[in-house]
């Protein structure tokens, strides 16, 4: 796969996700309600769609058409968006901007933003329940999404994130934090693709190992960009980690050390794919793009 082919496929899958999200919003998040408007504002207001693309890529790699996992990918994007709305609120990170626009609570008020996020996460499970896949697949997908987003996954990571605003984190504690806050939903992305395709266990394990490493790379690069980028480039405030006295990979290792750490985990991600052959080339290129990303 050439880089141009990778970019074209990523763009196609991201656009496929956008189009389906708009359709699902009409079905599950009516614009007649203000919470529906607020949910659409955050959900359809841009975003890299990396998690959705990972779901589609995992499905195709496992031998099924990527489109088969589309509703699962959209459900994951909805759950991820709900977490961002909550994360931006004053009781959490207190960020006024997201994706280059006022965050949901700044645009619609805290109460409406809270309800809009709740609407997104409940819609996500309704979408899975009605996906055009087997009952066994849908039950598996619901369990994957709940586990990745719940108290053993992302939410626990959010709890740890708040804890380490008031106390310094060790390297092990920082890794535990981000394995849950960031990594859990990235792993869930590949698992959802496998649930849609009926992937073999060995493929599931390889993709989960890849996703765990990619999730860590994603977070390390996030920490680097919070120091080196600008609000205009990222579309959200920079320097907020330092403002909140958070321990990051940059505060532990410095910029050069954090970059080297990201490269090491990128290599581990690639190693996890070594037995999957050329069919995993898209994921190899995605890992390289995440390592080099500027926003």
Determine the oligomeric state from the structure: single chain
What does the largest sheet look like?
2 strands, antiparallel
Number of helices: 15
Q: Please give the number of β-strands.
A: 2
Walk me through this protein's architecture.
With 295 residues, the chain is an all-alpha fold. Helix content is 73%, strand content 1%. The chain has one domain: Farnesyl Diphosphate Synthase. Strands 1-2 form a two-stranded antiparallel sheet. A hairpin with a 2-residue loop joins β1 and β2. α8 runs antiparallel to α9. The mean pLDDT is 94.
Question: How would you sum up this structure in a few lines?
Answer:
This protein is mainly α. It has helices spanning 3-28, 34-43, 50-61, 70-88, 104-108, 110-130, 135-149, 154-163, 171-181, 183-197, 201-228, 231-234, 240-243, 249-272, 281-292; strands at 97-98, 101-102.
List the helices and strands and how they pair.
Elements lengths: L2 H26 L5 H10 L6 H12 L8 H19 L8 E2 L2 E2 L1 H5 L1 H21 L4 H15 L4 H10 L7 H11 L1 H15 L3 H28 L2 H4 L5 H4 L5 H24 L8 H12 L3
Antiparallel strand pairs: 1-2
Question: How would you describe this structure in keywords?
Answer:
295 residues; mainly alpha; Farnesyl Diphosphate Synthase; two-stranded antiparallel sheet; 15 helices; 2 strands; 1% strand; globular
């Amino acid at each position: 796969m050439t880089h141009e082919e990778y970019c074209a496929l990523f763009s196609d899958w991201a656009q496929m996700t956008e189009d389906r999200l708009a359709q699902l919003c009409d079905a599950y998040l009516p614009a007649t309600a203000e919470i529906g408007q607020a949910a659409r504002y955050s959900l359809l207001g841009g975003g890299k769609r990396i998690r959705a693309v990972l779901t589609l890529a995992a499905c195709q790699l496992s031998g099924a058409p990527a489109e088969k996992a589309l509703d699962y990918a959209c459900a994951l994007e909805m759950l991820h968006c709900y977490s961002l709305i909550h994360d931006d609120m004053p009781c959490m990170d207190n960020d006024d901007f997201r994706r280059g626009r006022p965050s949901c609570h700044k645009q619609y008020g805290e109460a409406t933003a809270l309800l809009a996020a709740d609407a997104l996460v409940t819609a996500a499970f309704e979408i899975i329940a009605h996906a055009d896949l087997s009952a066994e697949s849908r039950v598996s997908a619901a369990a994957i999404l709940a586990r990745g987003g719940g108290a053993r996954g992302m939410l626990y990571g959010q709890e740890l994130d708040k804890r380490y605003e008031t106390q310094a984190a060790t390297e092990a504690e920082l890794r535990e934090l981000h394995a849950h806050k960031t990594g859990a939903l990235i792993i869930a992305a590949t698992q959802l693709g496998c649930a849609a395709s009926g992937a073999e266990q060995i493929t599931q394990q390889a993709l989960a190992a890849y996703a765990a490493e990619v999730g860590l790379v994603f977070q390390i690069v996030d920490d680097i960009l919070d120091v080196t980028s600008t609000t205009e480039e990222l579309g959200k405030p920079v320097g907020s980690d330092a403002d909140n006295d958070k321990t990051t990979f940059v505060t532990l290792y410095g910029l050069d050390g954090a970059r080297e750490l990201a490269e090491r985990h990128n290599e581990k991600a690639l190693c996890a794919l070594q037995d999957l052959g050329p069919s995993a080339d898209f994921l190899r290129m995605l890992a390289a793009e995440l390592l080099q990303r500027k926003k």
